[in-house]
Amino acid sequence: MTASIDRLDWADIAAQLDAEGYAMLPGLLDAEAARDLARRAGNLQTARRTSFASADLGRGERIRFDAELPAPLESWRHALYRPLAVIANRWNAILGIDDRYPADLDDFVRRNRQAGQVRPQSHVNRLGEEDYVALHQCSDDGPVFPMQVVALLSEPGTDFDGGEFVLTERRPRMQTRPMVLPLGLGDAAVIATAARPFKGSRGYYRVNLKHAISRVRRGERVGAELTFHDAR
């Protein structure tokens, strides 16, 4: 899995992130591996199950992992962080932010711990009929990594209808721009966590992003959300 991530076209991924605030990673998992991850995540005894409703984030179940993430999510988290840290540092330079992200995820996680961020945010979500996830950001007061990864572990049109993954982008003095990511079974995408640089007519400025999952009309939608920073 790490080797396949290393073989991705990172110049193209960076260009997509710069232009749209997201980059598609189609077929990062094959169909069997995606369904197997959904099953294993649902059966893990060490997982913590909470509802999106309890955090006023919609309806459905969120499965969190306090221990090591189930394969391949843990290896994804380390392998994807390294090339994304290069893009993140370039974004900071563009925006005039002095802080730089370390090359290794473990070093960044140590920064989180020192800032009091000790609660893992990565999770698998299960949404049944009429469930949805409201617009939100995975941001915090301490060090926040500007990108995260989402993946779909069930098949649109077969396992469920509806449940589209939605990004919104708010630029100053402009209407909010909605984007629907065309995720299929086993597809993943890198998305901006909360903000990204945008090049306007007078140079670069920061734009604000949120993400959501639209209402599931039929069946069950299973997805994963991989976050590099922890929460307080």
Record the SSE blueprint:
Blueprint: H1 2-6, H2 10-20, E1 22-25, H3 31-43, E2 47-51, E3 58-59, E4 61-65, H4 73-94, H5 105-114, E5 123-127, E6 132-136, E7 147-152, E8 160-162, E9 165-170, E10 177-181, E11 188-192, E12 195-200, E13 203-213, E14 216-219, E15 221-227
Antiparallel strand pairs: 1-11, 2-4, 3-6, 4-5, 5-15, 6-13, 7-11, 7-15, 8-14, 9-10, 9-13, 12-13
Description:
This protein has 232 residues and is α+β, with helices and mostly antiparallel strands. It has a single domain, classed as q2cbj1_9rhob like domain (Jelly Rolls). Helix content is 26%, strand content 34%. The protein is built from 5 helices and 15 strands. The protein has a 7-stranded antiparallel beta sheet. A hairpin with a 2-residue loop joins strand 12 and strand 13. The longest helix has 22 residues. It is globular. The two termini are 30 Å apart. The mean pLDDT is 93.
**Largest sheet data:** 7 strands, antiparallel
Cα radius of gyration in angstroms? 17 Å
Instruction: Give the topology string: H per helix, E per strand.
Output: HHEHEEEHHEEEEEEEEEEE
Strand order in the largest sheet: 1-11-7-15-5-4-2
Number of strands: 15
Low-confidence stretches: none
What does the oligomeric state look like here? single chain
Report the CATH superfamily.
q2cbj1_9rhob like domain
Mean pLDDT: 93
CATH architecture verdict: Sandwich
Q: Into how many domains do the coordinates divide?
A: 1
**Helix/strand class:** alpha+beta
Q: Indicate the CATH class.
A: Mainly Beta
Q: What percentage of the residues does DSSP assign to strands (E)?
A: 25-35%
Termini Cα gap: 30 Å
